Amino acid sequence: MEKxxxxxxxxxxxxxxxxxxxxxxxxxxxxxASCDELIxxxxxxxxxxxxxxxxxLSLFHQPIKARQSVCGRDxxxxxxxISLWLYANTRGVGSARELDRLCKECKPYQWLCGGVxxxxxxxxxxxxxxxxxxxxxxxxxxxxxxxxxxVKVHRISQDGTRVRACAGAASFRxxxxxxxxxxxxxxxxxxxxxLLENPAESAKLSAKQKSAxxxxxxxxxxxxxxxxxxxxxxxxxxxxxxxxxxxxAEAAAAANPDDKKAAKKAKQAQVRASTTxxxxxVMKMGNGGFNPAFNIQLATDTESRAIVGVDVxxxxxxxxxxxxxxxxxxxxxGGKVNxxxxxxxxxxxxxxxxxxxxxxxxxxxxKTPQDPNKLDQRYVPKSDxxxxxxxxxERMGTQAAKEIYxxxxxxxxTVNADLKTHRGLDGLRVRGLPxxxxxxxxxxxxxxxxxxxxxxxx
Length: 458
Prior knowledge:
By secondary structure, the chain is of the alpha/beta class. The protein has helices at 44-54, 58-61, 78-90, 96-105, 107-113, 120-128, 131-147, 175-197, 199-202, 207-237, 240-255, 260-269, 322-333, 349-357, 387-396, 399-422, 433-457; strands at 155-164, 172-173, 273-274, 281-284, 290-301, 307-313, 339-341, 361-363. The protein folds into three domains: 37-64 and 76-128, no CATH class; 151-167 and 290-434, Nucleotidyltransferase, domain 5 (2-Layer Sandwich); 169-274, no CATH class.
């Protein structure tokens, strides 16, 4: 008897005559649809687009060279690029190349493009090339939120977070090595020019390739030159303790030329600058390690949790940054900051007196003593305290002040975590302080629009 080779399912039924819907990619389809039908009504992309249409984008229009009666290709509407970046940040996308891919494959991004073709160069250059305009845009949104009474600045919370820079630890060099690299970079530019001027060699390269090589060589020379120029500034920033330690390490290495450990310690104590991103500085990160990073300062309204202040600095310490943040928030919102919450890393005792003169109440715990048995004594006024400082210590010892201070961690720290986890601020992909601030402003704008966009257009 011939063996049956037909397959059967679990119920004993043959699969030979099973009915399936199979892919048919050669079938010609006739479809009539507009770009507006790509996403449903009420989609987040539509909300962001409607908000952007209500804002004044004149600062983005000023550098555009395409004008009436002027030859050249039409410029891309800034509203499209702003909306794309804002929507991308709400989805945690921080890469220009990834955004370029999404514009070709994902319907919400295609809807925002509206049939306008883009490439990642245009997308990337726009994000990092409009610092003043983005700063004004952030102010416009915040002013609208305050005007609609959605956000208040009566009580704000401030904190700093370090975000990894687009530079490696090995890119930091001392003075001697930088001088050597600068000589080599200049020689490389000269050698490249001679090579490209040679007809036999340059014939192998296209005009685009020649331009790219020249640009790369000159940009490298410029970055090294900037690093050399910034070294004296970085040295002046050093604390007295760091200067003493560096001098001691250099003296120990000079006294014992054969001691490798002393030489290594002296080298590490030198002031160094990055040849990749001259504005980046090595900072202590949240995980306890040290990496090239930027210090991003944010302030939030404790009631609405909206971001009301943004700043980026290239110093790892937070000390002395509270007064400038209050001034920024008041200038952007037109309101008055009456209460300011921040952690002990910002604390400078003289600022307590200044805050009292400005009518601002500070909520920050005094520094914790090393002796656990003296923990409660930090709320006792000291003999050298001013009246304002003594009043501050006593106030922070009350239960009411401790309850208010709890709002700091519940607001600003969660907002920092949101931007780093969900809004594309997990690591920087641009170089230089001005470009980094553009990225942070876009992330902060996206955060505010994600939470308040519908109210702004209602």
